[in-house]
Design a protein that fits this description.
The structure holds two protein chains of two kinds. Helix content of chain A is 31%, strand content 21%. Chain A is of the alpha/beta class. Chain A has an eight-stranded parallel β-barrel with strand order 1-2-3-4-5-6-7-11, surrounded by four helices. Chain B has helices spanning 20-28, 54-66, 84-97, 107-116, 133-143, 156-165, 188-193, 197-200, 268-274, 288-307, 316-324, and strands at 12-16, 33-36, 70-75, 101-104, 122-124, 147-149, 169-177, 181-186, 209-214, 217-222, 225-230, 246-248, 251-253, 261-263, 278-281, 331-332. Helices cover 33% and strands 21% of the residues of chain B. In chain B, β3 (70-75), α3 (84-97) and β4 (101-104) form a beta-alpha-beta unit. Chain B has an eight-stranded parallel barrel with strand order 1-2-3-4-5-6-7-15, surrounded by six helices. Chains A and B meet through α3, α4, α5, α6 and β7 of A and α4, α5, β8, α7 and β11 of B. β8 (208-211) of chain A pairs antiparallel with β12 (246-248) of chain B.
Chain lengths: 308, 341
Amino acid sequence: MTMTMESPVPRLALGPVLYYWSKEVLLDFYERVAASPVEIVYLGETVCSKRRALHSEEWLVLAERLSSAGKEVVLSTLALLEAESELKSLHRVCENGRFSVEANDMSAVRFLSEQGVPFVLGSGINIYNHRTLQFLAGLGAKRWVMPVELSAETLATIQAERPAGVETEVFVYGRLPLAYSARCFTARYHDLPKDDCRFRCLDDPEGLIVSTREGQAFLALNGIQTQSAQTCNLLPELNELQELKVDVLRISPQAEGTETVIESFAACLRGECDPLEAARAINATLPYGACDGYWRGQAGLLQVAEMA
Amino acid sequence: MPIASAPSKPLELVCPAGNLPSLKTAVDHGADSVYIGFRNDTNARHFPGLNFDAKTAAQGIQYAHAKGRRVFVALNTFPQPSGWERWQRAVDQAADLGVDAVIAADISVLDYAHRHHPELPLHLSVQGSATNYEAIRFYHQHFGIRRVVLPRVLSLAQVRHVLEDSPVDLEVFGFGGLCIMVEGRCLLSSYVTGESPNMCGVCSPAKAVRWEETPRGLETRLGGLLIDRYTPDEPAGYPTLCKGRFTVADQTYYAIEEPTSLNTLELLPELQNMGIAAIKIEGRQRSPAYVTQVTQVWRAAIDACQRNPAAYTPKPEWLRELGKVSEGRQTTLGAYHRNWQ
């Protein structure tokens, strides 16, 4: 009798909310998340330190709530740190002593490695090869989120040399985080100075769409972050993700339909529905279409997989 | 706070060179250091016809060293597994050539250089995205970097704050093309064209560009996307993705950034006084004429500022000269000036 080597089923993770939602909207959202089939939940403000929907203590209360609902909670840190106050908050998150932390800047990597606690490397940490991953694993990284511009082919090479005990997470659904700036593009749109932005990010729960003068939408402005207008959806690649031994699939929260997306991924992972059909149903709801170009080693905004 | 009049350590002027004539003219016109790249994707200006092979690099280094100047090599892209040997070879080659520093960003490249060539000085490239002193401490602790080039996202007050706690010297951008995003963390180019600075050493690559005369005006496209459209009286610019005119809701405008260059001539006394080690001029892709002009102006400005910081003010002819070689013929203080943010 021959045994076939089955790849373990990847776990579903929900990335941090990248937008500025009010406290009520956030808490309501995470109540639904608590009941959803995601196993890992990343929590925290990663884009702008001025956004204070929840105070740090409130984030921790929410973390406990999700933890008691059976979720693995990871606290995500700010991606762009410039001010001393931001380093101080970062320090507090890294020293929370209860939950593990996702580092989104090398300052966080430094804090976490000095404490000798295992940590997650966010997709904004530039890991383009296994040597870099190996180095950071030596400092305590237990999981890395692949930079979103890398392809399946590159991932396969890195996976072949992946250090023991390190999990791989791939951003499989959501608007792609593409860039960070000192400038706040939302404030610029509203013709307000960044220091007096009046929290206008609250107006647009999925950011502001940028189109060419021919009406082709391609970017979304989310404060100091620039995202893709198209939604990355790698659900049709579920088999390949499993073959590549990806451990964790990250769904990035959107204002609409996140629970449905989580349900679809979970149902496909249980083998209850066809990934292509499920993806087709999701993509039909996306106002600016889906994309998978990066995964195929092409321009990120392209949709390469045939969905018809 | 009044600017102290006691002269501090002179600011080092670091100039770009995309070829040997540019390197020579930079040295001749007063660059203290020149930075170059090799002819492949190991550096962030991987453009056709640009950069140095082993022979021209050796000639350039000899030329600069004979006049007491230094040469840095930028190896500041992020190797993907299949190309690792190119980066490894580039580090070895830089060490063999006797360059004065390697400017790197990727952890595997820094680690290799640090372990195999412990005598080779390392600078953290702007592509390393170190925007705070704790990140700088990380690279200093693990790879012994001696200098960091700061991303163009910090205000002057923030630069001063980083400097106070940085274990190494700081180099800041003084002039040239303005990246509006944190360098090393911008994927806009690959999102539209498939090629990014991190992976391929290019941003908005020329091969993805189209210029088209249409009844609506001159149109510039990148990867098929309309970046800008010009009326006959408007000067057209290269379609760098972040510098196009786009529509957001009801407005069509430069949604991300205007076509403009960074120019910090007026900040020189403050930069010198706070103890910045070096000023970097952007533009390895630019012509020897650009390098000549910009080097001349900045040499004169740094010398004047060094002689008498209290009396220093940028001369109108310097600003005119720099204006001529600026993108869109306009300049900005960029993020150094908080209101720009």
